[in-house]
Amino acid sequence: MEVQALLITFREALEALLIVGIITSYLKRVNHKEYTKYVWLGAGLAVLASAGVALLFQVVFTGFAVMGSETYLKIAIMFISVILLTQMVFWMAEHSRDMKKSVEGKMDRFITTENVVGMVIHSFLVVLREGVETVFFFAAITHGNLGAAMQGWGAATGIMIAAVVSYFFFKGTMRVPLKTFFKVTGAFIILIAAGLLVQGISMLQDLNIIGSVMPHVYDLTWLLPEHPIDYEHYLRDHGVAPIFSGNVGVFLKALFGYSAMPSLEEVIAYVGYFVVIYLLVTSRHAKETRNAEQKEADAQALGPKTKNVV
């Protein structure tokens, strides 16, 4: 869970800090540093609002627990988180290139109209979006126990790493491009999303909401048990210890949704998720290639006409 929390907070905090950093750096560059305080005001209010969302969510979850329906809420959160995590990765991949230009364009309009309220609201919404997403993802990886995620070392470490990366980026001393950072963290986020998808399906099968054609496609307990209890049971029943500890299985299950005895539906969902991701990536790449070729063709067609006019 801690590694999941680290990756999620690093990703979310980095996105928020980058946008706020772009805004404040631009204001400094155009000699309007007096507006910086309003940007940080909006960001600070968003942090407080995110804490309020976390508190509200915990209250709602407790209400579901009292009614005995918290399991259904957990499953819903997992599936929604899969969609949000996937969307987050693709959104950043698509908008990271023109993010700076877009943010600076908005700031120009705010400065021209002296729209201080607009600056506060803009920075507030940027940071609030990341905060709300973090709350939701924490709920998914902890099954509703937000306090466990927020108090652990993963969340704090993720924020600190994001702050350090942002600092060196804006100081111009960071050697590794942010695009590479987003690709690497994006790959891990996709793995986390796939794991949540499989865990959600497993919980549905445990509740007998959906059945299974083949409850156990294979059994890797002898190699890597899913839990220390599975390790002890295997040792008791077979007289031989599994190759790897059950603690490793717990870690991989929490991070990637590992299952020592997955059902056929879990395997199909896991593999199918990556097939869908692959199709989305190749489709986006093909679209970018077509757009680049079209721009090049338009430029070549415009060249001779320009020469004739001259």
TrEMBL record:
UniProt KW 4Fe-4S keyword: no
Organismal lineage: Bacteria, Bacillati, Bacillota, Bacilli, Bacillales
A UniProt-annotated Pfam family: FTR1
Taxonomic source organism: Thermaerobacillus caldiproteolyticus
Protein keywords: Membrane, Transmembrane, Transmembrane helix
Transmembrane segments: 6-27, 39-66, 72-93, 116-141, 153-170, 182-204, 267-286
Region (Disordered): 291-310
Family, similarity comment: Belongs to the oxidase-dependent Fe transporter (OFeT) (TC 9.A.10.1) family.
Protein name: High-affinity iron transporter
One GO MF term attached to the UniProt entry: ferrous iron transmembrane transporter activity
Membrane topology type: Multi-pass membrane protein
Positions in coiled-coil regions: none
